[in-house]
Amino acid sequence: MTLAQSLSIGAPEVVLAAGALVLLLLGVFRGNDSLKGLSWGAVILFGLTALTVIDDAPARELAWNQIYVADSLSAFLKILILAGAAAAVLMALPYMQRVKQHRFEYPVLIVLATLGMCVMVSANNLLTLYIGLELMSLAAYVLAAFNRDEQRSTEAGLKYFVLGALSSGMLLYGVSLVYGFVGSTEFTRIAAGLSAGGERNMGALFGLVFVFAGLAFKVSAVPFHMWTPDVYEGAPTPVAAFFATAPKVAAMGLFMRVALDAFSGMIADWRQIVIFMSIASMFVGAVGAIGQSNVKRLLAYSSINNVGFMLIGLAAANAAGASAVLLYLTIYLVMTLGSFLVVLSLTDADGNAVETLDDLAGLARSRPWLATALAIFMLSLAGLPPLFGFMAKLAVFNAAVDAGLWLLAVLGVLSSVIAAYYYLRVVKILFFDPPADVVVNGEGGAVINNGMMIAAAVFCSPIGYLLLGPLAQATRTAASSLF
After folding, report:
1. Nearest C-alpha neighbor of 258 from the set 246, 245, 270, 276
2. Who has greater pLDDT, 475 or 97?
3. Is residue 463 a part of any domain in this protein?
4. b vs e for 366-403, b when ≥16 Cβ sit within 10 Å of the residue's Cβ?
5. E strand or H helix at 250, and its extent?
């Protein structure tokens, strides 16, 4: 394959890379006053990238000596990633104005992280996987400590960097073991090598464990979740929203591709690992959130809990399970973005962020629409019908039952009941507690943020079921790339 053909197939990454360089140069020459222009430029860049993704979506094509794959799965995941990244850029504009952090680097870092995520979901080689993962992570470490004058943000960045470096080392060690015992880092050759011997390859199994450990850190699955609450709480709210959405989509999509493509010959081995992480994540996320008083920490544990549900679909190891994971990712992206948009809108009379649950008491009396939106997102995250989040959990439970994983599905339902407690507690505080009168109408209610919040709330409401048919068809098409 010629270089021109490879560049054509990898057009989304080419556009993002070129755009990131242009934005960086503009920022350097124009300074921090260019933040607003660069932010909108990043959003336009994401739109152009999405057009190149859609244009190349139908066929499965390999590029750059088969280390890069463009198929319906990568196209679906890239659309979600680009949407999450665009939302993170837009919601940051009023926030940056309020905290007086007019730094042009923010949209540039988001674009670079997005470039890494797009490389991740198109990886057809363990080394491509690692390069994409590190490109995303290096930008994410800086974003976590973006408010460098604030102790919490600096601490969050340092914790994320140290633990992220550890997970990257484990992943790279696993890659070296797989290469040593299988003889290749290309996904298709790994799958063929594992299937050819007829006997269990213990060396490759050890490598698989280390690779899965590195990926579990990126999706914040138990027992590699310890960084999540502190980083979400300490990072700026738009950054926390970004971490909870786009990178989660990319990492989970990569997890699926590695498990169901590269290690398809070891399903019986890695399924046990995934089941353990699923059960542990569901219950740690459900129980850990009960005692939280900070909204962002609560959403961090909610993220861990939801990752556990996604892993149920992966454990099914079939097309229905993969499709259920993609549907869950789509709905989860919108629910989580909506939740963080509400958090971003919570400010006191001095313009300071309000993040404590007690300060939200009686919010429904002073800001009923904001309280209603947060209630919709909380109940949808809980998976209560008739909200759209119910369909996400129903899909993964059905996939588990079809795969014979009855006990896993039952434990998933049980953890949903436990998790419902803290989601309903938030609703109770909003609507039934005496007003704290802390939250006022402030900067957080920017027109763009309010528009995205309303759109997310409508999507999570029963109206979202109107999109279920097209979404289900798109997820089935994307999942078929793995089988």
Report:
1. 270
2. 475
3. yes
4. ebeebbbbbbbbbbbbbbbeebbbbbbbebbbbbbeeb
5. helix 246-257
Does 67 map to a domain? Answer: no
CA-nearest of 81, 129, 133, 88 to 108 is 88
Instruction: State the residue for tokens 């542990």.
Output: 280
Q: What is the DSSP letter of 225?
A: -
Q: What Å distances lie between residue 55 and 75, 82, 264, 416, 420, CA to CA? A: 9, 15, 29, 39, 41
Stretch (H or E) spanning 316? helix 295-316
Q: Residue 176: is it exposed, middle or buried by C-beta count within 10 angstroms (0-12/13-18/19+)? A: middle
**Beta-bridge mates of residue 186:** 125
The span from the CA of 47 to the CA of 136, in Å, is 19
Residue ranges making up the domain that contains 464: 267-482
Nearest to 347 by CA among 268, 248, 463, 443: 443
Mean pLDDT over residues 86-105, rounded?
Answer: 85
Considering the domain boundaries, does residue 362 fall inside one?
yes
Q: Per the structure, how many domains does the chain have?
A: 1
Q: Decide if 344 is inside a domain.
A: yes
The pLDDT score that the predictor gives to residue 443 is: 45
Q: What is the pTM for the complete model shown?
A: 0.94
CB 30 within 8 A of CB 23: no
Mean pLDDT in residue range 29-57: 87
Per-residue pLDDT at 311: 95
| DSSP annotation string for 336-376 | HHHHHHHHHT-B-TTS-B--BGGGGTTHHHH-HHHHHHHHH
pLDDT band per the 50, 70, 90 thresholds, residue 440: low
Band of residue 482 on the pLDDT scale cut at 50, 70, 90? confident
CA–CA distance, 474 with 327 (Å, rounded to integer): 9
Distance in angstroms between the alpha carbons of the first and the last residue of the chain: 25
